[in-house]
Amino acid sequence: MTDIAPNTTNGVNVEALLGAREALTEAPEAAQFVWRAACEWKNGTHTESRVERFFGLGEEQRHQREFRYDTDHPEIFAAEDNGSTPVEMVLVGLAGCLTAGIASVAENRGIKLNSVTATLEADMDLQGILGIDSDVRNGFSNIRVNYQIDADASEEDIAALVAQSQKRSAVFDILTNPTNVHVRVNQ
Amino acid sequence: MSLLAYPSRAAGAIDVLVIGAGHAGLAMSYFLSRARVDHVVLERGEVANSWRRERWDSLRLLTPNWQTRLPGKAYAGDDPDGFMAIPELVDTLDNYAAEIAAPVQTQTDVLEVRPADQGYRVVTNRGTWQARSVVLATGACNRPCVPKLAADLPEAITQLTPFDYRSPADVPKGGVLIVGASATGLQLARELLEAGRDVTLAAGEHVRMPRRYRGKDIFHWLTETGLHDERYDQIDDLSRGRRLPSPQLVGADDLPILDLNHIRRRGGRITGRLMGVRDTAFQFSGSLNNVCALADLKMQRLLKLIDETADASGAPAGEAFPPTLVDEAAALTLDYRQQNIRSVIWATGFRPNYDWLDVPVLDRKGQLKHDGGVVAAPGLYALGLPLLRRRKSSFIYGIEDDARDLSEHLINYLNTMRRESDGFYRDHSGRRRYRRSA
Fold it and tell me: What is the pLDDT of residue B430?
């Protein structure tokens, strides 16, 4: 699924994606994926996480190489600022997911993208995580994503790309809908 | 009742059994009778049974009367632009069954259909048939779809489906959460708001559509543009097309458009799709903005397509419909105790029921595998399902073309079988012919 067909508009191999869709409709068990990350505490609020292996298409898979990510907090939190905050990583995930979706949908619709940029902002009231006010949630109260897209398409078609990408986005779903989270210790 | 004129026939060998005497089964019977094909229509209750028993009081057809036609029968009433209430539709179907002398056997429950002896063995509560061919015309709305999370609701909350709902009096006092923003969800939300109820409407993906546009009913344009004649084998994503919720329409033209904006203006609260129930709170999706944006974009695309046809016909200028207003702070959770929400109505769609069908033709989601109504088993056909052969297949007026196509396929199938046995067969006009020597 990693070959890039030479005759694509935006470098997305839609044929392969559509082929995968068809194949996985026939074999739903192969569609069962498990994504993984491993993390280790360094010092203070600094943590290093690594991503390499995952499970899918019925067997263990791995990335071309291991990817490492530092998360920490900025100096105003009395931390060393060795990396972005974990909540910023969530925005990175959302941006990566929506933008990949826009490129894929554009490819499928034969729309040539000239440039796609986005800025993301999320509001957070620190009274939540600091335990000051129990009515304030810990997480984001709002996320705003602003896309600037230059493409060979009408304004409506560009809006439709962005809407369709949200509809099919995993991270958008993860952020907008509840998920059961199980955290276990020393098991 | 006029149907009693048709003597009941003892179960036995027969060419074709049609299961279900709704508009689809009767339309098939019309074409089979015209070609003199030996057949019986089995009906678990009376003609138009689902319409008689499984619909709410205020419901009217979404299509205008001029379009409510059946093979060989146009609307003949004095209100072509009106919308038929259900009792009138039931009468129409009853009269139609009599006019075309449909061989309907009422009060006949089909208990099992299974392959046997070059055809199907059909077991009913009134005997067992052996049919060469079977037409499934039992409809697309046999059971309400209720999501799994319904099991997480506390007993204190009354749960209703559209099968349980007749009028606002059936809904317990207090607030009501309507789940689903199709024609059903919007119609019930409007009716309950008008009855003074506190209504919350949870909206997932939906189809927004005005009742009238550029001086004509929307169905005029859906037909004129050729959109409703689009065939199933020309549609990019057929399975998505078949799953599409019904458009947000109501059989009345007192509103230019029945949409989420209207529900909101009338005091209804709009939330995202219902995703879960935790402790005493409903949890809603944060995707409301996007599902509304999608519905607005799709409606504008439809109106633009209509404009091309409307401009050519010199229709008056197009109305503008403002975008769907979404509350920036739409509720993500609602505590049903604090909000006094006492009932939930699942307006989450319907599905067919094939419990009695013992033929391996269902996919893993329980959907019938068919190619435009030709089911993946010889001699088995389906009729009256959404987008079966055309976009209009979901509507009563759409049945004629589908029934004609499938009856021709079926007659060819029977003739092939016969040529292979005794050599005699009937052509499309019903004339008995002998096979040409090979």
Answer: 64
CB of B300 within 8 Å of any CB in chain A?
A: yes
User: What single letter denotes the amino acid at residue B358?
Assistant: D
Residue A2 has pLDDT above 60, yes or no: no
CB pairs < 8 Å spanning A and B: 38
pLDDT for A44 beyond 60:
yes
Cβ within 8 Å of A, B 196-215: 205
B12 close contact with A: CB closer than 8 A = no
Which residue has 């009395």 as its token pair?
Answer: A78
> Can you read off the two tokens belonging to residue B261?
């904006």
Reading the block at residue B366, the tokens are 């329980």
On whether the CB atoms of residues B123 and B137 are closer than 8 A, the answer is no
Residue B361 and residue A174: Cα distance in Å, rounded?
A: 35
- Give which of B284, B287, B296, B299 to mutate to test A binding, by max A Cβ within 10 Å: B287
**Minimum-distance CB partner of B286 among A156, A160, A175:** A175
Helical residues (DSSP H) of A134-183, grouped into ranges: 155-167, 170-176
HSE-up of residue A40 (Cα within 13 Å, Cβ side): 4
| pLDDT tens, position by position, B186-220 | 999 999 999 999 999 999 999 999 999 999 999 99
For residue B272, which residues of chain A lie inside 8 Å, CB to CB? 176
Burial class (CB in 10 A: 0-12, 13-18, 19+), A157: middle
Q: Mapping DSSP to helix (H, G, I), strand (E, B) and coil, where does residue A162 land?
A: helix
Q: Which of A163, A173, A177 sits opposite B294 (nearest CB)?
A: A163
Here the ipTM equals: 0.82
Q: What is the pTM of this model?
A: 0.89
**pLDDT < 70 stretches in chain B:** 1-7, 422-438
Say if CB B72 and CB B100 are below 8 A apart: yes
Instruction: Tell me whether B283 touches chain A (CB under 8 Å).
Output: yes
Q: What is the pLDDT of residues A69-111, one digit of tens each?
A: 999 999 999 999 999 999 999 999 999 999 999 999 999 999 9
Is A163–B287 a contact, with Cβ atoms under 8 angstroms apart? Answer: no
- Helices A86-108 and A155-167, interaxial angle, to 10°? 120
